[in-house]
Design a protein that fits this description.
Distance between the termini: 83 Å
Radius of gyration: 25 Å
Structural class: mainly alpha
Number of helices: 8
Order of helices and strands: HHHHHHHH
Protein name: Tetratricopeptide repeat protein
Shape: globular
Organism: Leptospira mtsangambouensis
């Protein structure tokens, strides 16, 4: 075997081994993402969003452009129940640190909703769940203490999906918390009317 043939043979062997390794790695990644997806779906089916958080984080590490799973992650952060709530009998520093963690969590949730709900609206403007995602985004803004923004998002949610009548209730509550009694009264009436219309429709 001459020198050229030897080099060609070595190159082909290296190329073959590299391809096999890439295929094996791709196959392993696919298996892991499939298992994670199944785990996430099962947890969200039983409303156990908190437990799904580490699975979602790992899944999004592997598949960074998965719009739907980014929205599920934002929802899981919104509903998470594993963060300690500050107690009045605790030292002030502990209460402040716990409050900061909770605030950071809601801020991340609202940031993820904003990025991904707007992207969803752009790529799939007729998505039947778009109103529901706006509704959840509105809550994340409310919990982040962005009340005015939350009101606008609830308005958008019910505009996209008239069945989200709770949006009117939430808007009325937000206006009350802001001391805007006239606006609150208007939305209480809208809520009552929308609920009545839904009942008649059923």
């Amino acid at each position: 075997m001459d020198k050229t043939s030897t080099y060609t043979f070595k190159f082909v062997c290296i190329l073959f081994l590299s391809t096999q390794m890439v295929l094996a790695g791709g196959s392993k990644k696919k298996e892991e993402t499939t298992a994670l997806r199944k785990q996430i779906y099962n947890l969200h089916k039983v409303d156990d969003e908190t437990t799904s958080i580490p699975y979602l984080e790992r899944y999004l590490d592997l598949s960074q452009n998965e719009l739907y799973f980014k929205l599920l992650y934002a929802k899981a952060l919104l509903y998470r129940n594993d963060l300690s709530v500050p107690r009045p009998d605790e030292p002030a520093e502990d209460r402040i640190n716990k409050a900061k963690l909770i605030q950071k969590n809601y801020n991340l949730s609202s940031k993820l909703f904003q990025e991904n709900v707007l992207h969803l609206e752009k790529v799939r403007p007729r998505d039947p769940n778009l109103g529901r995602w706006y509704y959840l985004w509105a809550f994340s803004e409310w919990f982040s203490d962005n009340k005015e923004k939350s009101i606008k998002l609830f308005q958008k949610a019910v505009k996209l999906d008239y069945r989200l009548t709770e949006s009117y209730y939430n808007i009325a509550s937000l206006y009350e918390s802001l001391g805007q009694w006239q606006d609150a009264s208007l939305y209480w009436r809208k809520f009552e009317k929308a609920e009545k219309e839904l009942e008649e429709e059923d």
